[in-house]
Structure formats: structure tokens, C-alpha cells
């Protein structure tokens, strides 16, 4: 999916610039990205091939107060990112959760360096994915109340939280959908209906079953009112063991984290598509009208001119307006030219010469035979 | 449904043919002014009886005639919410660019989706039967375009949903 990539584009660009710089470059950048991620990149002239990358990201689960520090599993996953190049610094920068020491000399030469730098730029997605994996794995039996497991509220984007409910042998993820405009709600609802329809087909039997409802599902009973008040309904995915098996876990986790952003991107592009289509249709409809006019002009008509400087036009087409505008622009440019030699009467002549004559239908008439 | 379309359009065509007999008529209220009397409605003797042609409850056409102008208001069918927003967007888009159509009104009459205003000057500049053909063709094109837009939006949604679910397989 091109729109939501794991690698941070800004971080990728800065690291590429650092790597390919011929002279030592000093960099001290602060970056803020989608998902409230904050980066700090520091490269000093005294150590040109070493960069320090500090990262801070809010906890995925807002209610978990101890999650400000990164867990050992997350640290382990980060260490697996380009082991020779990336090291975790002992002292982290103040205000950040983690500081990485990047040894740019250890990045392989040739075409592979782009791939390596891109992998380093995915550090934020690695942190988030590992946090979600831990939440899904570290299921606490105390959370079970009367046989129903308490929903866990997760917030990748603070304004778009979603819920994860553990009901062995499956995990249900529920996305409350909210849009500012009514048209967005309707377009998204049409999309969710198609999503449910495609998901229930035989071809996509292996994909997680999804459903949409206008009212909150029963699994969310007892949650806060502000979390359950939506205008776009609720989309639920049933994740089974098959979807979190081996390599699929990473993909599943990333797709779930970005589902809201995916839907919003689709709604935005659909509105753009509708606009383009309307413009094209407008041109076709106007062309029909002008074609009607040109058929009228082609008939043999005897014209009587009321005034020599006026000519009757049956249609004030857009081409006429464009021509008039261009003439006006040319005229203004010519008027601004400063002539060194002053000729008497030339100013008035220039004014008359540069003015486009007006064509008025009220003065002339067309005699029809 | 298609069986009622032809008689509906034929009825509108015949009514327009009868109603489009416009002539120049200066304003009776203000000297040296020439205004479309159907918009002002200040002189009842200059107005003809309006004609309402209904295809069904959701589709209708109102034709109001005066001595020097004619107003045609259309209500387009909207089967569901998606068609509703597509119709509103599209007709508002056209109305905002009314100068390209000359005979289109910038704001539709209340209770209708789109309105045309034809004056005696338009009848002088354009051929009457061609103008009527344009109006009828416009109505057909609008219906067709809304249906195609709806189908395109649903097709896009299906493709996007397919791509999303493919990532889980």
C-alpha cells in the first residue's frame, strides 16, 4: 500500500543525505510525524560517519502508565534492525524513549545502502508493531469479567482509537468510524459494505471476517460514551490464530494499525475522482450546447449590420473570453513599454489601437430569409 | 421504470414547445429596464399558469412561463443516500458554472435540484427546437451520469477492499 509505508519518508531522506554527503555535514533536526512520533537526528562534524537518532512515541495503550519505557521485547526487535549499523546508545537523549547510534561506515556500498537505510527508517513501525504484539500475547486472565474479556483501547492516532477484545480462540478488533462531513460518512459506508461483501466471498475466505454495524457491538458494552458516539458506524475484524502465524503477524498488526488512515485515504481519493469526472462531464455537456450553436451559424443567413464596428455573435463562448483576456494582457504589456521618443497624438492612437472592440447583440440583428 | 421515461420526456418536450413563445417586453415597473418577468412575478397578467409534470413522487419538472421568460425546474431521482450526495455535488458543480451554459440558473428553485432560465434573447440567439432538444438531452445525461458515478464509486470501493484484504492472505 503506497500511501501508508512503514519507513518514515523524512527520516529516510535525511539519512540518505547524510550517507551520500561528500563533506562532513552537521545535522540537528527535530521531526514530528503522523502517530505523534517524534525524532531527533544529530550528526556532528567531529564524528561525520556517526549519527544519533532519538525516538519518542506515545504509548499505544493510553491507560497503561508503565508503558512509557520500551519493553525488552521491543528493544530486542529494534536490535534486529541492521545489527552492524544500529546500536542502542547507553544514555538516551532527554525527553526521548530511545537513542540509537548509527554507524554509517558499516552500511554496505553499492545499491544495498538504500535498502538498509529504508530498514532503519522503519524503527517507529517496529516499536508500534512489537507493542501491539505484546498486548495481544500478554493476555491477563484477571481481565476476564463474567466470561467477557475487557476491551483494550489502543490509540495509534490519538483522535482515532480502536479496541481489541480477546475472546479465545479469536481476537476481535473494533474500529469506531467518525467523519466531519456527511458525504464522507456515506462514501465510507458504501466502502464498508463492499468490504463486507468481498470478505464474505470464497476467494477471500482466509482473510479475517469483517462486519459493519451502525450501533456499537455487544463487546463494547460499558465503554465510555465519547468512544462509542460515532457517525460512521463500527467495523469489526475477527483475527484468528492463522492471521498472526509467523510472518503474517507483522503484516496483520501493521494493517490494523493503519486501517483508519486507509479508509480516510480512500474517501479522499474518491472525492477527487468524483470531481475529475464532473469536470470532464461538464466539458461534454457544454460541447453539446456549442455544437447546437454552430449548427445554427452554419445556416445561410443574411446579416444586416447596425454599426460598422459591431458584429453580432450568437454565442459568447469560452474561447472568446480566453481571446479577450489574452488581448487584454498583451495590451497592458505594450502600454507599459516606455517609449523614449515622444510622438504627439501617439498616446491616443495607442489607446484606441490596443482596445478590443465590444460586440453587442442589441445593436445588430440578423435577418432570416 | 424505463417505460415511463419516454412519455415523461415527450410530455416535457411538448409543453416546452408550447410554452417557448417569448417576446421582448420591457419592464412595466421601471423605465428602460428589461427583466425576466418570471423571476420578478410583479405583474400577474404577464404570467401564464405553471405546469407541473411528475414522473413519480421523486421526479418532477416544473415549467413556469411569462411573456418574456421561461423557467424550467427539475427534481432528479435519488434512490439512496449515495445518489443523493452525488446528485447534490454534481448539480451544484454545474450551477456554479452556469455561465458556460447560458440558460442555466445559478441557484435552483426551492424544492428542486436544478433550474433553467430562458429569456427572449436566448430564443433570438438560438433555435427553439434545438434549445428544447438540449434541455431534454440534459435531463437524460444527468440521470445517466449519476448512475455511472454511483457505479464507479462502488467499483472503486470494491477494488480497494480487495486490495486491503489481499494483504492478509
UniProtKB/TrEMBL annotation, chain A:
Per UniProt, the keywords (alphabetical) are: Actin-binding, Cytoplasm, Cytoskeleton
> InterPro entries, from UniProt?
ARPC2, ARPC2/4
SUPFAM superfamilies named in the record: Arp2/3 complex subunits
**Major location, coarse class?**
cytoplasm
Subcellular compartments: Cytoplasm, Cytoskeleton
Known PANTHER family for this protein? Answer: ACTIN-RELATED PROTEIN 2_3 COMPLEX SUBUNIT 2B, ARP2/3 COMPLEX 34 KDA SUBUNIT
- What does this protein do, in the record's words? Functions as actin-binding component of the Arp2/3 complex which is involved in regulation of actin polymerization and together with an activating nucleation-promoting factor (NPF) mediates the formation of branched actin networks.
The family line of this record is: Belongs to the ARPC2 family.
Complex and partners:
Component of the Arp2/3 complex.
> Per its record, how is this protein called by name?
Arp2/3 complex 34 kDa subunit
What organism, scientifically named, is this protein from? Stylosanthes scabra
The organism's taxonomy opens as: Eukaryota, Viridiplantae, Streptophyta, Embryophyta, Tracheophyta
UniProtKB/TrEMBL annotation, chain B:
InterPro entries per the UniProt record, alphabetical: ARPC2/4, ARPC4
Q: Does the keyword Cytoplasm apply?
A: yes
* Cell compartments where the protein resides: Cytoplasm, Cytoskeleton
UniProt keywords (A-Z) are: Actin-binding, Cytoplasm, Cytoskeleton
Keyword Flavoprotein among record annotations = no
Into which family does the record put it? Belongs to the ARPC4 family.
Spell out the PANTHER family in the cross-references: ACTIN-RELATED PROTEIN 2_3 COMPLEX SUBUNIT 4, ARP2/3 COMPLEX 20 KD SUBUNIT
Functional description taken from the UniProt entry: Functions as actin-binding component of the Arp2/3 complex which is involved in regulation of actin polymerization and together with an activating nucleation-promoting factor (NPF) mediates the formation of branched actin networks. Seems to contact the mother actin filament.
Name of the protein: Actin-related protein 2/3 complex subunit 4
Q: Which organism is it from?
A: Stylosanthes scabra
Q: Which gene encodes it?
A: ARPC4_1
